[in-house]
Amino acid sequence: MAASAGSTSASVDALEKLGLVGNHSYGLLGCVEITDSFGDQVKLYQLRNPWGDFEWKGDWGDDSDCWTDESKRVAGWTDADDGTFFMCQEDLIKYFSRIQLCRINDNYKYAFFKARHKLGSFALIRFQINAPGGHHYLSINQTDERCFDRSVDYDYSNVRLIVAKIEDADTEQKHLVYKNGKMGQDRDTWEEYENLEPGDYYMFVEYDWPDNVQHTEFSVSCYGESQSIFLRDEKSLYNKDELVRELMASCAEQELAEGKTTNFAEQGAPDITKYFAMTEEGYGYVHIVNHEIEARYRENINYTKFEKLQIQ
Fold first, then answer.
1. Residues with catalytic roles
2. Residue 184: is it exposed, middle or buried by C-beta count within 10 angstroms (0-12/13-18/19+)?
3. Per the UniProt entry, what are the Gene Ontology biological process annotations, in alphabetical order (predicted)?
4. Beta-carbon neighbour count of residue 219 at 10 Å?
5. What CATH class has 2-100?
């Protein structure tokens, strides 16, 4: 477990006066509940500055008056300049902008793939999950901001992820089955799957790079019960608009996104169904399925506001 403090130059200066280092990661060692001098229960978190010194100076720091002999004994307090200190939950939430957990399973397998895509483009990473499948994590990882000089105006870009299973993987006309989608604007965007079946999959990755982008490299990874293999970027096999339409159609017909489904049985056309939804990854769709032999469906859609919308 790790925690990061500070995200702006202003907060960095303020944090240093409190004994914290801005834009810096701390190890989160543990949590203990103690009774303070007023008889109240307090949750304390033990953190460590990897530098081995420069510690928190606020409440429940090494020299804080909050401590009693009994609370020191329960928490395992030591007065050592070793970078380790305690904070209460309220201060942890106030001064730390991110907390990360790294889940490790000795029996899990890890695989990753480095890729890139230009401004306005996308990537379509093909990978395989070997039998028997099972519990897995899929993630997209941008280059850490700490890899760049502080003078560089670098920020994490918004990304859309769609995972689809490839049916009939060995044929020319592949059928894609939408699994799920996600959007994020952080170093790591990830999704957990309780049971990822064996087979071939695509990870559709689309970054909203800024106009002045210079660094467009990212990585995708898989960590889980079965061995996974990343093969290649197959975006050259697809037209983006047609690909997204196929994925959204699959999502709609499985009714995976929270939206509205309308059947026209009352109008005498039970084999016409309309699906409307906004997906978690930021795409919206109006999908019509018409299995009627004679009936046709027609609808006029009026947009009162079209700012930042694109029709695909």
1. 24, 49
2. buried
3. proteolysis
4. 16
5. alpha beta
Q: How sure is the predictor about 309, in pLDDT bands with cuts at 50, 70 and 90?
A: low
Q: Nearest CA to 43 among 5, 90, 97?
A: 90
CA atoms within 13 A on the CB side of 218: 31
Task: Provide the token pair at 28.
Answer: 């989160």
| Residue 146 identity (one-letter amino acid) | R
Q: Are 226 and 198 within 8 A, CB to CB?
A: yes
Structure tokens at 292: 């009627």
Structure token digits, residue 216:
């467009």
One fold for both 2-100 and 109-238? no
Rounded CA gap, 312 and 33, in Å? 54
d(CA 140, CA 154): 18
- 155 DSSP β-pair partners: none
Count of CB atoms situated within 10 Å of the CB of 298: 5
Contact 51, 85 (CB under 8 A): no
SS3 at position 196? strand
| Mean pLDDT within 111-126 | 96
Q: What DSSP character marks residue 156?
A: P
The amino acid at 16: E
pLDDT tens-digit series, residues 238-254: 999 999 999 999 999 99
Please state the domain extents for the chain: 2-100, 109-238, 240-312
75's CB contacts (< 8 A; 6+ apart) are: 32, 34, 44, 46, 86
Average pLDDT over residues 201-225: 95
Dihedral pair phi/psi, residue 265, rounded to 5°: -60, -40
Under a CB-based contact definition with an 8 Å cutoff, are residues 45 and 30 in contact?
A: yes
- CATH class name, domain 109-238: mainly beta
Give the pLDDT band (50/70/90) at residue 258.
very high
